[in-house]
Write the structure tokens for this entry.
Amino acid sequence: MKSTRRTILKTTLATSLAVVATGSAGAMASWTFVGSDTLTEVVKGSITGCEGDGTCTAGLLIYNNTGSGAAETGVATANPTQRIAPMSRNFTSSVLSSFPTLAPAQKNIVGLDAAVMAEKNVDASIIPCPDLTIALDPDQATNPNHAAVNEMIGLLLGGKDGKGDTASCSDPARLAAIDTLSTCFGGAKIQHLYRRDDRSGTADTFKEKMRIQRFCNGRAPGLVGGLDNNMADDDSDPIRRPCVAADANHAQTVCTNYPATTVCTTGATCTQGLLISLSQNDPGASDITLSIARRTRLDTSGNNVVVGFAGRAAGLDSNNTMPTVNTIGADDFNTRADAYMLARRLYVNWGIAHIGAGKTGGPTADDTAREAAELKLFNWMTAPGVGRFNVDPVLANVGFLPCTEDSSAPSGPGNLCSKQVPPPAAETTPKQCIPPGATSSTSIICCASGLVGDGTTACGAFPCAHAGFACAGTGVGNCCAADATHCTNAGGYSTCQ
């Protein structure tokens, strides 16, 4: 985002890390709640504002930006660990089926954003494809802003038919999409595509809108030993690239001996897939969206370029740009009017069950105190009328879009904030999971549970591509064997022999 995003909200949050005294109750540590990375600065800025006007007690709440999925997990249960849920998407259909009263109301929609493809801003005279032409899915009559399968973005992220397996992600259709994207940079090689991990509402937006069942790099849960980490990435993309080293601007990302997926750091056989997930902030970046934006903007790999798939902030970052989709850009007007295909709502949801409700004996005094603190922040951000005046300046200061320009209540079908909330706004496309009994070594897909279709066998490494499937580059790690079956035409794209 423009430099304002990096300079605003400098008010220290040190008080949010303090231990506060609570009179006769003694010392009480602060409570951490989780939610959308996209909303990191919005939530932290709201905590500062709520504490600043005395509504919230200083030091009680700390925000951990582990993703919308983490917030959903925290509240969508009979025994929640938190009740406030900052999310960059609606609850999933499975959650709303189990907990229909979680369906958000208009007050829960605090602002707007858009998912974008962020590119380095190069000389406009040499960009032959500033617009992405996306055919809409004719079978999605009730959701006309869904792409038809095998559109450019869908092919880049999910391969042929959005299946995300080895064959789909090495299919000639995906290779053609990569070549098309490279023409936007005068023919430069696309070095890497960056995306948010599987807990992200941004990732869900791309999956839903672009009809992606699974991403080409496989699972990216973002957690290693309980820590948010880029190393939790299957790195299953059959199109391989040199590893990006960790340095002053880059956190470490997974590097593997593909297709064995043995994690390594050096060596000729160690590579990274074209598509990489980021789960942790790069040094000096406050959230993942800014990390993706900076990797796109600061790429210095000569004739190679990187492209990011993230929130609107990545495309608005200085020296970055974002192509239009069907000639419609993600500007303020188009986003509010829901004219831009990947426009989305930002939610601050509230759980239905009390924190600790499922504990033996019910909630503790600590549970009750925590819930009261979260409720104060929730009301500060969402109270009809008052909430918009509170949160709108925070949204605007960090580059997101308030529902209206004057903090008035949104109304009418011409404003995405006031449109009826459908069930649900993300993950309507089921994740690909091969049914029990499937044995094809080229198409077995891991389920979200980490098991294959029989429900008991742990997911293994993605297989290599077999005869007839396309491959890229030298073919190392793409085709089945290094000798008899290998990629011909080592300097370009071909097929496994």
Remarks:
- Residues 1-27, 425-450, 459-497 have pLDDT under 50 and may be disordered.
- Residues 3-111+344-418 form a domain with the D-Maltodextrin-Binding Protein; domain 2 fold (CATH 3.40.190.10).
- The CA atoms of residues 221 and 442 lie 23 Å apart.
